[in-house]
């Protein structure tokens, strides 16, 4: 096994965050894995949980984790503001040179970043892609259509726009102005970054079945807001 600590290009300061909604059963496993991982691969790190007004005990569980582990900060939304708003708050609060995120539903394993961290020496963004998604047929179709539309409308060559396994360097976040608050935010960030000349490295990741909580990505309101922001961005209104 390669000792990635010996790579001089390995990021030494990492901010990790996750949006969390209906994830009371998922957060303990996720945060435990993230803490162990970051303790191994970085010299300094922080973990931010953005609790997006969950109706379950996600907020309470997040606070318990902040007491259990050092370097954890919890941001609470008084009401559900949506995925895009949760991501924006995570990026806004992150302090370190590299910002890593995944979702609070524990459907990704952050340890799958490890073999590819050295690519940050050549790229400004590390973006995962999933070959086989653990989704319902409806969600798979939605994801496929969305990726095709983004490629056709914006001419970006990203295999899996909405894969929630990404790392951004601070210089990218400082250079781009993110405006969407819907699930279009992933696409907007990558489009703006590529248009600004930043480099993206892509790597394969595994998508696991959701064990606890309820997914909200297929709700009509979520889809409608995403399409609205996509069209506004396409015609220069965002």
TrEMBL record:
GO terms for cellular component: plasma membrane. Residues 15-175 form the Glycosyltransferase 2-like domain. InterPro entries: Glyco_trans_2-like, Glycosyltransferase_2, Nucleotide-diphossugar_trans. Keywords: Cell membrane, Glycosyltransferase, Lipopolysaccharide biosynthesis, Membrane, Transferase, Transmembrane, Transmembrane helix. The lineage of its organism: Bacteria, Candidatus Harrisoniibacteriota. Pfam families: Glycos_transf_2. GO terms for biological process: lipopolysaccharide biosynthetic process. The keyword Zinc-finger does not apply. This is Glycosyltransferase 2-like domain-containing protein. SUPFAM superfamilies: Nucleotide-diphospho-sugar transferases. It comes from Candidatus Harrisonbacteria bacterium RIFCSPHIGHO2_02_FULL_42_16. One of its GO terms (molecular function) is undecaprenyl-phosphate 4-deoxy-4-formamido-L-arabinose transferase activity.
